[in-house]
Design brief:
Elements (H helix, E strand, L loop, with lengths): L1 H12 L4 H8 L3 H13 L3 E4 L19 E4 L17
Antiparallel strand pairs: 1-2
Helix pairs in contact: 1-2, 1-3, 2-3
Length: 88
């Protein structure tokens, strides 16, 4: 099932964008966003919140434009996992 593939990609990468996940599962970003919403409702995925200061040095993206996701419970490990928390 493709939801499982999306979850597997997130577990492997720890943090990924809908575009990166879509490429990995051979789907579209919009379809992946719908799947991520389903996985969020089930409590399996949370939105990644970049650490404070992200985007202030390079200024290549607006902080609010960053759309990344990680598996729920990722705060138990991984370099970027501390910013994974359920909020939206």
């Amino acid at each position: 099932m493709i939801l499982q593939q999306v979850l597997d990609v997130l577990r492997q990468r720890q943090v990924a964008s809908p575009r990166d996940i879509a490429a990995a599962v051979d789907s579209t970003s919009d379809a992946v966003r719908s799947m991520l919403a389903t996985l969020q409702r089930k409590g399996l995925v949370v939105r990644y919140h970049p650490p404070p200061g992200c985007g202030t040095t390079c200024r290549q993206c607006a902080h609010s434009d960053i759309e990344l996701y990680c598996p729920a419970g990722a705060n138990s490990g991984g370099a970027n996992a501390s910013a994974c928390q359920a909020s939206d």
